[in-house]
UniProtKB/TrEMBL annotation, chains A, B:
CDD domains: DTBS (cd03109). One of its GO terms (biological process) is biotin biosynthetic process. This is Bifunctional dethiobiotin synthetase/7,8-diamino-pelargonic acid aminotransferase, mitochondrial. The gene is LOC104603186. It comes from Nelumbo nucifera. One of its GO terms (molecular function) is pyridoxal phosphate binding.
Length: 861, 861
């Protein structure tokens, strides 16, 4: 490339250690935290250039775009183009940023317009080998500081000022940057490994993020006209980055809109389509496909595949002669790049406008569940652009529009579990299941995903008791099914006679009720509601058909208060004879200890339950089922029920042949630190319901598991004896596929590093010391932590307490500003992570909460 | 390649026109029907070889495999290897089948074992240009018959017999076939176009299917040890086939297990992963990835990506020297191909075993909905291996194991709509939505798929009346939500006072009931059940909590009988004053005619409804809502209600300020030939429920639409006034994405060729003459056809009639043998296609039904 330099009349090449080092310290520093807050600037078009293969001309496209943007600039209308090459191998002999820098300069000088222009090329970090190659051997090399990731901080810089026809005023500026360079011209993961400088993904992302903001963020508000950023990837879409992570996965947290440089050669249609699909399978939006012509008319099948929804642009054939300076090619391509630029600009503007208008449109079209629309003004509507693992990417207007990150601490109504890797694998599996099966009829049929899922459920949460899986769509339907199962079994066991034709009672009127706990919640359909005690959800205003068909007992609850676990007994159970040492515990484990069954408290529980059942049994009504949420009453306010009480309940019902239903819709699949809450309780049900986290949180699916004895109560010679309940998408293939993947993922120590105790438990996720401190906070009434759940109740009285309360709103708002998306349950707030979330992230969450609690209580003082 | 021939000592090259022509007439004929029955032979391993790009060595892998399979054969253990190249361009100069044939012969002669061997190479069809090139110009060319698809039938054939060391007995046989050849060495779609011989996908698939069966199907039973088939694709996975259809889509109906030949070069990791993903996105199973080494250790990131679940094999570097005969390379690769063969064999055996065991496992683990397990022995369990558009691919054991095709005529509980193209696009969209969003919290938030879906619903089925979309998971929950909406509105409009804290009635006890029609069905959860009249589903045996909270009217029904549409009035409506001409119609359209509102019948309907409402209103109960399934009572037995009656019902309720609910769960989205059944009825509801077909049939999602007036009844200053109902996956991104895609697809004449009447209707799908004939059949009580629905009731009495009846079982079994999967509703059977299904296919279905009806009635005579 030395023939080149003749052209660069105004070039000034510098090695500005001091000047640039300061620069660098702002733009690149090693991140110390295990997490990175992602912020994407929407003040101007920012795109990522992907290639369907290596050598398809990504850098030519970058150059053409830069020239197109900058050449239309005038001194009255200045433009600035940032070109970033995060990962460069073969460096410095190969340098795409230098290529863009040089070619742009050549093009500028050839086309020379009114305004002047500045171009620069920066190289930030490189392996020792590449640094040596760039800077020459000797003392210079020794001077270079080595950053923590083992790379050399280069601070290498070259610049060229180019005069326009008539003015000295700079109309346009090109800033090219190579962030990381390795010497060998091989895949980055290999080069990094061989040159002893493997860098972590988070470090790379942080460097890239700083680079993207640097020079753009001038503190001004609104859209920055004339500024463009372009990030060029290395190799193909799924080529590994320096750590080995595929680039399409590596850059996913930014989810920048994409330009795909396709392949115009023979076989290039296939490669281009497959690359497009790999990007789609990571949730990227592709704004245009572009490739150079090889006379094969590849654009026709591509457009047909894309159904003309994504533009396909064809560049003139790139001269194969190495000595060609490409100036004529760039001239010929000028209008194509001009079109590409326009498409990119309008896609950017459309996206921005859509994001800005979404809150209004949402308020005009949606009817949100559990939401008083009058209390949701436009400005508090959250626009979710995407999710990546546990984090939402949220649109916000601060100074300018940005996409920022919020941890989904409500786990999207307790459904979420995937980390970023699981999310991507689930996405691929969802595509596969939809392509292989779509949905197929379940009854009397069998297909792989349904069978695998049933097998896994029965070997997992159902192990040791369940032998049948009945599928439905959500927790509420799973509960209705469970009730039907239980009642039939009860009728069967208690000799209740039914007419085989009408299905009606032969003898007399008789009413089935359930035994349940006050404060438990089993869903929103009528049958599920009937099994819960009267509450805000069940009044005539909400459900005129609700009657409350149950015997509802007040349960004792447990929680952390002032640093230790306490039991709170309902009035009816309070007695002076109970010893205090039975009522305070040092750890949660003690609460689950089986030895408690021989305590005074256990006897007291047992007596109480027996009394209540006896009182009830005098009437015409029968208790046809026990239904409980094991351990935690979730929607009821994240109350932890004394597990001993639930154990005694199960025991007493077993003695009376009352079928036992566990509602594990919330508690199942590691939500509470074990695969099932039944395992924590240490007793098994006859029927149990699962949903939410079962599919890893991507798709609705529910299952009701039952013992063979329950199943047998439905066998008979007539179809009318069968359980005549079912939903259209019973055991749908995608749901079962997701469940299979998620259940295995959560359970496997290879994919879930939180798994301990020979696969039986999650390690402690919430920092014990911090939890202790929070429990001492004067604004805090009680704390509960178990598995992935951290909950606290704020001290509140009167209208400030209960489900309808808005007391926690200000705290919630502050935490959302801290990047924590939570939703209160009245004056109860909770943080919920996934089974794979690292304890570090959990600690960050409760630290933020702790800090904000002080502010909150001061404001409320 | 002439240097080659020296080696081929035993070669006999023939042009056996007469002999082979007969052969051909069996193996390749032009299909006349518009559909093809797919049958995949599982008697032996059959694989498809795909390439991640062109020129990655698919044919080398095919050759190596052939050699590996055949070289282990002995005379005691003969083997036969079929190699098929369906599409060859650059032919005959390039011929992969000839390459395999020749290289195998060379390898055989080099390794020469005990047994002898026969190898042959066939070329079946070619473009005129390619044929001329192969056979030489002149008279021969003229003799060649031109097949209907414009190609020449070649019947070109070469054969070589190779002697083993000790015996004359043939131990192994290689049969290589090229089905279609084009001369130009370009993409098949271009070559076919340029050489004037574009062939249809169905013709190609039929040719391939014949080829796959020919020589294999010897009438023997069970597994055919020693036989292998390998089909090699052209170019990359998504390279277009001759018609332009991408090959991964083209061959999808067979869904053969795949071997992916990856790319070991720089950038090859990306291309290999993307190709893998494109195959997964079509539902293919990839058994192994193999590629040749370029020193880049590409297998490490590939294995990491695949999490070691799919084996990756690395071949020695392929010599780049064109003169190399590759014999040493094949020697070096021998053990790799041996391993590949073993993996393929064991994957084949595992699949076979799994398929065979599935019915038993299903019976052991599943609890099917609406199924009396005692009536489902193992042998009637259907094993569904996949679906492709409207067809199931079903495992059957006839002589040997096969995968055969059944039209999903129950539309998998009325959910299905996609054709094969929509299914593939939906799969890609599902992957994208899962990757971009997974699932995110809905209330107070907005994200693109939910907003787009809500907008489309309100502009489509809700056009002109609805302004709010409330999402849930299935029809049943959508109904429960609708009822809550209606009751609140009714309270609001009728001044029913409620306590603002408890939500309970202030004044007196009061009961809300619904006005509904006998025989309608709204779902299986308690609230939905309460809104339907007593039936087999509602007795104490099934739902002890059911009380039937409705005023249920018997509706007049309409149906085709003896060739014309008739009205059947319930007893209470029968009157001598009604004129017969009001009761018989020549066409279904007449029934929907608005002018009927001024008829005697309309007045009679109106009077009856008014009387019933007046009688009821004397009590403490209020009619808080009207709920109807517009036009068709689906689960109730596919009864069509006189639309005039439903119109009068709506009118009377409007007059009394009773909110009107349409249950369009079954009827919505073109099921009945219009986007909504409300459109057919010609009147709009206040609330309507949608599910099933809404997502195109891939994923559960439901919506309850409402007017702004309904929505306003929930506004207030307290959260407790809001509609406190919601399911965890409310408005989940995948469901909304699928709905958006499907709704647009069904509506767009570009994607749905059935759309007529300026987008308002589907054309008639069921052949009128055949329907007429069937309605005359003595075994048939009544017929209903509307939109995608064809239903008939078999004449039956006593136990043979009704939901519990097994009367139709034998007819259902016969039709399943004919490749039509249907499920009866007692003595009612129905066929249901998708909105895009061609009328030709629908006619085939009812023809088959018509034929089997004769057999059925003879057997029952």
């Amino acid at each position: 490339m030395s023939a080149f330099s003749a052209l660069l009349q105004n070039s000034r090449r510098r090695l500005l250690y001091n000047l640039f080092s300061r620069h660098c310290s702002r733009c690149i520093s090693t991140p110390s935290s295990s997490s990175l807050e992602i912020n994407v600037d929407l003040s101007h078009p920012t795109y990522m250039v992907w290639g369907s293969n290596t050598g398809v001309g990504k850098t030519l496209v970058s150059t053409g775009l830069a020239a197109s943007v900058l050449s239309s600039a005038a001194s009255s209308n200045p433009a600035k183009f940032f070109y970033i090459k995060p990962v460069q191998t073969g460096f410095p002999a190969d340098s795409d940023s230098r290529f863009v820098y040089r070619k742009f300069s050549e093009i500028f000088l050839r086309r020379r317009g009114q305004a002047s222009s500045v171009a620069s090329n920066h190289a930030l970090k490189a392996s020792a080998l590449a640094a040596k190659e760039l800077l020459g051997a000797g003392s210079e090399d020794e001077k270079l500081e080595r950053s923590e990731d083992g790379l050399k901080n280069l601070c290498w810089y070259e610049e060229m000022r180019m005069r326009g026809e008539e003015t000295q005023v700079v109309g346009s500026e090109l800033v090219c940057k190579t962030i990381y360079g390795w010497k060998e011209a091989i895949s980055p993961h290999l080069a990094a490994e061989r040159e002893g400088t493997v860098i972590q993904d988070l470090n790379l992302l942080e460097s890239l993020q700083r680079c993207m903001w640097l020079g753009v963020d001038d503190g001004s508000n609104g859209r920055k006209e004339g500024i463009w950023s372009l990030i060029e990837t290395a190799g193909g879409v799924a080529s590994p980055g320096p750590s080995g992570t595929l680039q399409c996965d590596l850059y996913r947290p930014f989810r920048l809109p994409a330009i795909l440089v396709g392949d115009g050669r023979l076989g290039g249609i296939s490669g281009t389509i497959s690359a497009y699909e790999s990007l789609k399978l990571r949730g990227y939006d592709i704004v245009a496909v572009i490739f150079d012509d090889h006379g094969l008319i590849n654009e026709v099948p591509l457009l047909s595949y894309l159904r003309h929804r994504v533009p396909v642009l064809v560049l003139p054939p790139v001269p194969q002669d190495q000595s060609d300076n490409l100036m004529e090619w760039f001239d010929e391509s000028q209008s194509i790049f001009g079109s590409l630029k326009e498409m990119m600009l309008s896609a950017y503007l459309e996206r921005l406008q859509r994001l800005q208008n979404m809150p209004k449109k949402a308020r005009d079209n949606f009817w949100w569940p559990f939401t008083q629309h009058k209390l949701v003004p436009e400005e508090i509507v959250t626009v979710i652009d995407s999710r990546c693992g546990e984090n939402f990417a949220v649109h916000k207007v601060q100074n300018a529009d940005i996409i920022t990150q919020q941890f989904d601490a409500c786990a999207s109504w307790w459904t979420q579990g995937p980390d970023t890797t699981l999310q991507i694998e689930l996405a691929r599996d969802m595509g596969y299941a939809a392509a292989r099966f779509g949905h197929v009829m379940f009854p009397e049929n069998v297909y792989e995903p349904a069978l695998l899922c049933a097998e896994l459920l029965l070997e997992g949460v159902g192990k040791g008791w369940a032998s049948r899986a009945f599928f439905s769509d959500n927790g509420s339907t799973a509960i209705e099914i469970a009730l039907k199962m239980a009642f039939r079994k009860f009728s069967h066991d208690h000799g209740i006679l039914l007419d085989s034709v009408t299905g009606n009672l032969v003898e007399r009127s008789l009413v089935f009720k359930v035994l349940a706990l006050s404060g438990s919640y089993h869903g929103d359909t009528l049958g599920a509601m009937e099994a819960q005690a009267p509450s805000s959800y069940t009044g005539f205003l909400q459900q005129p058909w609700y009657t409350g068909r149950g015997l509802f007992l007040d349960p004792p609850t447990v929680f952390i208060c002032n640093g230790s676990w306490n039991i709170s007994l309902p009035e009816v159970l309070q007695s002076k004879s109970l010893k205090l040492e039975n009522m305070i515990f040092n750890s949660c484990e003690e609460l689950f200890n089986g030895s408690r069954e021989s305590s005074d408290l256990a006897r007291s529980y047992s007596t109480y339950i027996t009394q209540q059942l006896c009182l009830f049994l005098g009437s015409e009504d029968h208790i046809g089922a026990l239904i409980i949420e094991p351990v935690i009453h979730a929607a009821g306010g994240m109350h932890m029920v004394d597990p001993l009480f639930q154990r005694m309940l199960v025991k007493e019902c077993r003695n009376r042949k009352i079928p036992v239903i566990f509602d594990e819709v919330f508690t199942g699949f590691w939500r509470l630190g074990a695969e099932s809450a039944a395992e924590l309780l240490g007793c098994t049900p006859d029927i149990a319901c699962y949903a939410k986290l079962m599919t890893g949180g991507v798709i609705p699916l529910a299952a009701t598991l039952a013992t063979e004895a329950i199943f047998d109560a439905f066998k008979g010679d007539s179809k009318l004896m069968a359980l005549l309940h079912g939903h259209s998408y019973s055991a749908h293939a995608m749901g079962c596929t997701a469940a299979t993947k998620a259940i295995r993922w959560f359970k496997d120590p290879q994919t879930n590093s939180n798994i301990i105790a020979r696969g039986r438990r999650l390690r402690e996720l919430w920092d014990a010391k911090l939890v202790h401190q929070i429990s001492l906070h004067p604004a805090v009434q009680r704390v509960v932590t178990l598995g992935t759940l951290f909950a606290l109740e704020l001290c509140a009285e009167g209208h400030d307490a209960g489900y309808g309360s808005l007391y926690a709103s200000s705290l919630v708002r502050m935490l959302r500003e801290d990047g924590v998306y939570l939703r209160p349950l009245g004056n109860v707030i909770y943080l919920m992570c996934g089974p794979c979330t690292s304890p570090q992230i959990c600690s960050q969450l409760i630290s933020k909460l702790h800090r904000r609690l002080n502010e909150f209580s001061q404001a409320n003082a």
